[in-house]
Design brief:
18 strands; 284 residues; 9-stranded mixed sheet; mainly beta; globular
Length: 284
C-alpha cells in the first residue's frame, strides 16, 4: 500500500493511493496515518480493504491536490549522519566507528512539495536526499535479526540542513537541522511488503534540473536492520517514529566550489519505488 495524508496544511486527512493513481479517502476507516494505525495488525486490516469502496478524492496527488507529510503526529524524527562513506569523504570526515545520531524537530516535517524556507541569516542551506524508515511495532533492545518486523514502511525525506548553523554555532548538529520546512516527507508511505530489500534502492536529487546527488542504499555504512537495533539501545522506538538513514554524496557542501540554496530554486528528488518530491525555495 501507498498511504498518504492529503489536504491543507494542518488539516490533512488520511488516504491511500489506488492502482490507477487516484487518492482514496481513509478518514472513515482510520483517524490518521499515525501511531497505532501503523501497527502490523492495523496495516493488515487496511490491506483487506477494497479500495474501490472508498470515496475517491477529487484532484491529482502532487498536482492540484496537496499532500502533507506521509506520517502524522510523529513522536521522534531520528537522523543518521555520515552513513555513506563517499559522503563522509566529501565532508572531510572519517567514517564513524558507530552511527552518528541527531534529531530533527518534528515541527520541521512538511509535505513533499511544500516550499523549503531559507532561514534568516543563512548562507549555507543545503540539500540531502535520504531513505526514511517508519516504525510500526515499537520496542526496546530490538535484536538485529528481528528488526525488520518493526518496520511499517519507507518514504523519501529531504534532510535540508543549514551548514553554518550545524557546524559553526557551537554544540550539536541540531541547530542546523530543525528549521521549519527542513523535513519534506513523502509523497507516500510505502508499506514494507512492497519494498523487499531497502538496501537495493537508487536515490537521487536534482537542483534546477542539474543532477547533484546519485546514490544507492547498498552503499550505506550502517544498514537498516543494524540502525533499528542500535537506536533501540538508547531509546524506545514507537509506532510512527521516523528514522532518516543518511545521504549519499553530492550535497552542496561537497561541491567545489560549494553550491548552497538560494530563494527561487527548485529541488526534485526521489528514491526508487517510493515516489518523487519537488520543492521550491523561498526566503523565510
Amino acid at each position: 500500500m501507498k498511504l498518504l495524508r492529503y489536504g491543507p496544511m494542518g488539516h490533512e486527512k488520511p488516504g491511500v493511493l489506488d492502482p490507477e493513481g487516484c487518492v482514496r479517502d481513509l478518514s472513515g476507516v482510520v483517524p490518521d496515518i499515525a501511531g497505532a494505525v501503523l501497527l502490523p495488525e492495523s496495516l493488515n486490516r487496511l490491506k483487506q480493504l477494497n479500495l474501490n469502496d472508498l470515496p475517491r478524492v477529487p484532484g491529482v496527488a502532487q498536482q492540484d491536490l496537496r499532500l502533507g507529510a506521509c506520517v502524522g503526529q510523529v513522536g521522534k524524527c531520528i537522523c543518521i549522519g555520515l552513513n555513506y562513506a563517499d559522503h563522509a569523504a566529501e565532508s572531510g570526515l572519517s567514517v564513524p566507528p558507530e552511527p552518528v545520531v541527531f534529531g530533527k524537530w518534528t515541527s520541521a516535517l512538511c509535505g513533499p512539495d511544500d516550499a523549503v524556507q531559507i532561514p534568516r541569516d543563512s548562507l549555507k542551506t543545503d540539500l540531502e536526499v535520504e531513505l526514511a524508515v517508519v516504525i510500526g511495532q515499537g520496542g526496546r533492545y530490538i535484536a538485529q535479526a528481528d528488526a525488520m518486523r518493526h518496520v511499517a514502511g519507507y518514504c523519501v525525506m529531504n534532510d535540508v540542513s543549514e551548514r553554518d548553523f550545524q557546524l559553526n554555532r557551537s554544540g550539536t548538529w541540531d541547530k542546523g537541522k530543525g528549521h521549519d520546512s527542513f523535513g519534506p516527507l513523502g509523497p507516500w508511505l510505502v508499506t514494507a511488503d512492497e519494498v523487499p530489500n531497502p538496501q537495493d534502492l537508487a536515490l537521487w536529487l536534482e537542483l534546477d534540473g542539474q543532477r547533484m546527488q546519485s546514490g544507492h542504499t547498498s552503499t550505506m555504512v550502517y544498514q537498516v536492520p543494524f540502525l533499528i537495533s542500535y537506536l533501540s539501545q538508547f531509546m524506545s522506538l514507537q509506532p510512527g517514529d521516523v528514522i532518516s538513514t543518511g545521504t549519499p554524496p553530492g550535497v552542496g557542501m561537497g561541491h567545489k566550489p560549494p553550491v548552497y540554496l538560494r530563494a527561487g530554486q527548485t529541488m526534485r528528488l526521489g528514491v526508487q519505488g517510493l515516489g518523487v518530491q519537488t520543492q521550491t525555495t523561498v526566503q523565510a
